[in-house]
């Protein structure tokens, strides 16, 4: 294997933040949304790494969620009302990731992340929260296929939440906080390898 993990970061800004802190770990920009994530998963499947870790931003779904908190999902699943055929995927690296990131001064939460095709705001967040998720993103469940039987995990940093919508005045402070935390996450994971 050429590396312990390949880090999949959906957007250019996420990939830049992760690369700047991951000190040589392989980081692949995968693109935003289901179609780009599916295409990236095909490329990730041929990576010579021991596992795949999706790292980037997400939206928080409940009122206690704030920009900069870290969500490590135990599973990711597609929103059922959008017609996606994929099934829920267990994130087998979640316990190890929690152990690695705990005690580093970051707010950590575990729970499901639901994956959607379009940015979720307002009433859509309420609907997704009712499905049992605590976070929402647009790629993780589709990128999971890129693990191709290898260990798979997701670490997402909340960029916005119901009380801190991204498109509101004053959102820049939360976005900067989330960016700093994403770099800290990448720095903590750059030499980490899955057990076994």
Can you offer a commentary on this structure?
The chain has a single domain (6-189), classed as Rossmann fold (3-Layer(aba) Sandwich), CATH 3.40.50. It is α/β, with parallel strands linked by helices. Helix 1 packs across helix 6. Helices cover 31% and strands 22% of the residues. Strands 1, 2, 3, 4, 5, 6, 7, 8, 9 and 10 form a ten-stranded mixed beta sheet that branches. It contains six helices and ten strands. The radius of gyration is 15 Å and the shape is globular. Strand 1 (6-9), helix 1 and strand 2 form a beta-alpha-beta unit. 47% of the residues are buried. It has helices at residues 12-22, 34-44, 94-101, 123-130, 140-143, 171-189; strands at residues 6-9, 27-29, 52-60, 70-72, 75-78, 89-90, 108-110, 113-115, 135-137, 152-160. The mean pLDDT is 89.
Q: What is the name of the CATH superfamily?
A: Nucleoside phosphorylase domain
Instruction: Round the Cα radius of gyration to an integer and report it.
Output: 15 Å
Specify the structural class: alpha/beta
Per CATH, the class reads Alpha Beta
Runs in which pLDDT lies below 50 for 5 or more consecutive residues are none
Number of DSSP-assigned strands: 10
Whole-number total of structural domains: 1
């Amino acid at each position: 294997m050429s590396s312990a993990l390949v880090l999949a970061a959906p957007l250019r800004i996420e990939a830049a933040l992760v690369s700047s802190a991951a000190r040589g770990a392989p980081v692949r920009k995968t693109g935003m949304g289901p179609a780009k994530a599916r295409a990236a998963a095909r490329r990730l499947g041929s990576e010579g790494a021991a596992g795949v870790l999706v790292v980037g931003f997400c939206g928080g779904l409940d009122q206690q969620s704030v920009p900069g908190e870290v969500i490590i999902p135990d599973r990711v699943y597609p929103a059922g009302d959008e017609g996606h055929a994929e099934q829920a995927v267990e994130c087998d690296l979640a316990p190890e990731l929690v152990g690695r990131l705990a005690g580093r001064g970051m707010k950590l939460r575990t729970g499901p992340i639901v994956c959607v095709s379009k940015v979720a705001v307002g009433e859509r967040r309420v609907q997704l929260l009712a499905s049992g998720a605590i976070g929402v993103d647009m790629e993780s469940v589709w990128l999971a296929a890129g693990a191709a039987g290898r260990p798979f995990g997701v670490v997402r940093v909340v960029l916005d939440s119901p009380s801190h919508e991204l498109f509101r005045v004053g959102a820049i402070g939360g976005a900067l906080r989330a960016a700093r935390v994403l770099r800290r996450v990448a720095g903590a994971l750059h030499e980490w390898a899955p057990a076994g």
